Amino acid sequence: MQYNYSLQPFNTFGIDVKAKYFASFSDIPELKANLAAFPDEPLLILGGGSNMLFTQDFNGLVLRNEIRGIEQVDHDDQHVLIKAGAGENWHTFVQHCLAHNWAGLENLSLIPGSVGASPMQNIGAYGVEVKDVFHELSAYHIASGEIHTFNKEQCQFGYRESVFKRAFKNQYIITDVTFALSKNPELKTSYGAIQQELATRGITKPQIRDISEAVIAIRQSKLPDPILLGNAGSFFKNPVIALDEFKTIQAKYPDVSHYVVSDTEIKLAAGWLIEKAGLKGFRQGSCGVHAKQALVLVNYGGSQGQQILDLSTHIIQTIQSQFGVTLEREVNIIPSHESIL
């Protein structure tokens, strides 16, 4: 157990805040022992620290999930069930599955973070979401000390959402996740620039490894490496609006980037809105909007979390004023600011 411990190495924004108490756990008994030592302290579970913004020191107990292990638990002619510890690095896990020719995760290559965070956020990229390959997860119920199992329906997946971000927020600690992967790949190449990247590489009959490498190249071309430039990936969700609202915006901006969700709803590209508002590359002190990807806010060095939060508020207000659309933060603000804009 560490005291007054810096969390700078454990969040991809590189914010220098401290935890009152800090420890890691690699199995359930160790988790229980740490929780029992400080039963009345506010609790924060850390995975890869890739989807959070610290705005101040954490006056409580921070536990880093380091439960490891990858195993095949079942299979048939078509599918294989792969269980991974919640503390496994996500990209390392994806690469492990690719090495065994288990398909389904290739479009989710190079997403920062841990396996345990993947269902919590229902992470997604290039036309695939975790819910598409999810089988079940195990989670430690903090109040009872029991391990509960959740299937796909019980997780209530939504766009970057799950029951663990809503009804069960702060009630469970995910310990492992099981994925249903395919032995016979159904490649998804129509989203984003995957087909273009494959063509550039001269690949006409791609395998899952080719898809993964194309996704990695695309991400590296426009997303900053958090090791070199602090960031948390996409800071905002793509807003979903009513069809009539969309038509009003489209009348003024015919080139508005959008995706049809249903007969009545349209999803807008938040990055397009931010860029159209002239904020791509915008800098405010030691933080700013990335010059190559408007969805990404970056810490140029020495920025405080509150400064980045203030920048995000400025962006939200600007988009609301110009387009009448309210952006929602995808990144978790720590400590929670329930009343922030």
Notes on the structure:
The protein is an alpha+beta fold. It folds into three domains: 2-65, 2-Layer Sandwich (Uridine Diphospho-n-acetylenolpyruvylglucosamine Reductase, domain 2), CATH 3.30.43; 70-182, Uridine Diphospho-n-acetylenolpyruvylglucosamine Reductase, domain 3, CATH 3.30.465; 230-334, Uridine Diphospho-n-acetylenolpyruvylglucosamine Reductase, domain 1, CATH 3.90.78.10. The chain contains nine helices and 20 strands. The chain has helices spanning 28-37, 90-99, 117-121, 152-155, 194-200, 208-222, 243-252, 270-276, 305-323, and strands at 2-6, 18-25, 43-46, 52-54, 58-65, 70-75, 79-85, 124-125, 128-129, 134-141, 147-151, 172-182, 230-234, 240-242, 258-260, 265-268, 283-284, 287-289, 296-299, 332-334. Strands 6-7-12-10-11 form a five-stranded antiparallel β-sheet. It has a four-stranded mixed β-sheet with strand order 1-2-5-3. β10 (134-141) and β11 (147-151) form a beta hairpin.
Summed up, the domain count is 3
Trace the largest sheet across and list its strands: 6-7-12-10-11
Annotation, overall tally of beta strands: 20
Mean pLDDT: 94
Structural class: alpha+beta
The general outline is: globular
Radius of gyration using CA atoms only: 20 Å
Low-confidence runs (pLDDT<50, min 5 residues)?
Answer: none
Q: Encode the helix/strand succession as letters.
A: EEHEEEEEHHEEEEHEHHEEHEEHEEEHE
**Percent in helix:** 25-40%
Q: Please give the alpha-carbon distance between the first and last residues.
A: 36 Å
**Roughly what fraction of the amino acids lie in strands?**
25-35%
Main sheet specs = 5 strands, antiparallel
Q: What is the quaternary state of this protein?
A: single chain
